[in-house]
Amino acid sequence: MPATRGVVYLHCVPSAIAPHVEWALAGVLGRPARLEWTGQPAAPQHLRAEAAWTGAIGTGARLAASLRAWPMLVFEVTEDATWASDGERLAYVPGRGFHRSMISANGDVVVGEERLRGLLSRAKNADDYRHGLEELLGSAWDAELEPYRFGGDGAPVTLLHQVV
Questions:
Q1: Other C-beta atoms within 10 Å of 15: how many?
Q2: pTM of structure
Q3: 9, 75 Cβ separation under 8 angstroms
Q4: Arithmetic mean of pLDDT, 31-55
Q5: What are the residues whose beta carbons fall under 8 Å from the beta carbon of 69, sequence distance 6 or more?
Q6: Which domain of life is it from (predicted)?
Q7: Which of 12, 62, 125, 158 could form a disulfide with 51 if both were Cys (CB 3.0 to 4.6 A apart)?
Q8: Number of other CB atoms surrounding residue 107 within 10 Å
C-alpha cells in the first residue's frame, strides 16, 4: 500500500489530557509520539501542538478516530493525496462534531458530484442551497477553528512516522 503523509493539528487540549493524546497517536502509529506542546492563546490554560506524520493511506482517519475519546479536544487531521487516494481533512469541534472534506493538491475543499446532486434534490430554495453548500464546505467548522489556528503561527512541528 502506498504511503502518504499529513499533519495532526491539536488546536486546543486540556493539559491533563496531553499525555493521553500522545498515547492515542502512538497507538495508531506504532511508535512513541512525543509532541512539543505550547500554550494556546485562544484558550488560556489549554495547550496546542502540531505533528507531521507519514504512514499508510487511511492513517489520517485512524488518527482522528483515536482522538474521538476526548470530546473536549479541538483538532484537525490532514492526509495528502496519493496516486491511489484523494486527500482529506477531518476537523473536530466540540458540540459540532466531525467534518470530513476531500482536499485537492492545492488545499481546496473538493465536493463530489453525488453530494452536489443530493443537495440540488433537497434544496427547496436559494437559502436551502446556500446553507447546504456551507455545510458541504465545512464553513461552520472553519469559522470555529480559525481563532485556534492563529495560535499555531510559528509554533514547532513534531515529526511522527508510522511503523510499517
A1: 11
A2: 0.87
A3: yes
A4: 93
A5: 20, 24
A6: Bacteria
A7: 158
A8: 9
| Contact between 78 and 53 (Cβ < 8 Å) | no
CA of residue 77 relative to chain centroid, distance = 3
Lookup result for grid cell 455545510: 135
Give dist(CA 22, CA 35) in Å, integer: 7
CA-nearest of 23, 2, 10 to 158 is 10
> What are 113's three cell numbers?
458530484
Amino acid type, 164: V
Q: CA 159, CA 144: separation in Å to the nearest integer?
A: 26
For residue 114, the model assigns a pLDDT of: 95
Q: Would you list the DSSP string of 113-157?
A: HHHHHHHHHH--SHHHHHHHHHHHHTHHHHHHHHHHHHTTTT--E
Q: Say whether pLDDT at 17 is over 60.
A: yes
Report the percent of the chain where pLDDT is more than 70. Answer: 91
- In whole angstroms, give the CA distance from residue 65 to residue 75: 11
Q: Name the average pLDDT for the chain.
A: 91
